[in-house]
Amino acid sequence: VDKVVLAYSGGLDTSVAVKWIKDHYGLEVVTLTANLGQERDLEPVRQRALKVGAIEARIVDARKMFVDQFVWPALQAGAV
């Protein structure tokens, strides 16, 4: 069985997308949620992904990359 990785926020849209992808394409879904420094605990998001049918749900710590590659350049450019 083929797999697909879905950027997963834990909201209604991406939760429905997990089942839709499985039903319409017959693919197994692995979800990926990025920790960008938000205050909420992401474990419930991971659990929700598994509950709606993902075969695996990963959380990656992307805080340093987000600051280094997006936040800091935006501040330097005066865009924020």
Automatic annotation (TrEMBL):
<dbReference type="GO" id="GO:0000050">
    <property type="term" value="P:urea cycle"/>
</dbReference>
<dbReference type="InterPro" id="IPR018223">
    <property type="entry name" value="Arginosuc_synth_CS"/>
</dbReference>
<keyword id="KW-0436">Ligase</keyword>
<dbReference type="GO" id="GO:0000053">
    <property type="term" value="P:argininosuccinate metabolic process"/>
</dbReference>
<feature type="domain" description="Arginosuccinate synthase-like N-terminal">
    <location>
        <begin position="3"/>
        <end position="79"/>
    </location>
</feature>
<dbReference type="InterPro" id="IPR014729">
    <property type="entry name" value="Rossmann-like_a/b/a_fold"/>
</dbReference>
<dbReference type="GO" id="GO:0005524">
    <property type="term" value="F:ATP binding"/>
</dbReference>
<dbReference type="InterPro" id="IPR048267">
    <property type="entry name" value="Arginosuc_syn_N"/>
</dbReference>
<dbReference type="GO" id="GO:0006526">
    <property type="term" value="P:L-arginine biosynthetic process"/>
</dbReference>
<keyword id="KW-0067">ATP-binding</keyword>
<protein>
    <recommendedName>
        <fullName>Arginosuccinate synthase-like N-terminal domain-containing protein</fullName>
    </recommendedName>
</protein>
<dbReference type="Pfam" id="PF00764">
    <property type="entry name" value="Arginosuc_synth"/>
</dbReference>
<dbReference type="InterPro" id="IPR001518">
    <property type="entry name" value="Arginosuc_synth"/>
</dbReference>
<keyword id="KW-0547">Nucleotide-binding</keyword>
<dbReference type="GO" id="GO:0004055">
    <property type="term" value="F:argininosuccinate synthase activity"/>
</dbReference>
<dbReference type="GO" id="GO:0005737">
    <property type="term" value="C:cytoplasm"/>
</dbReference>
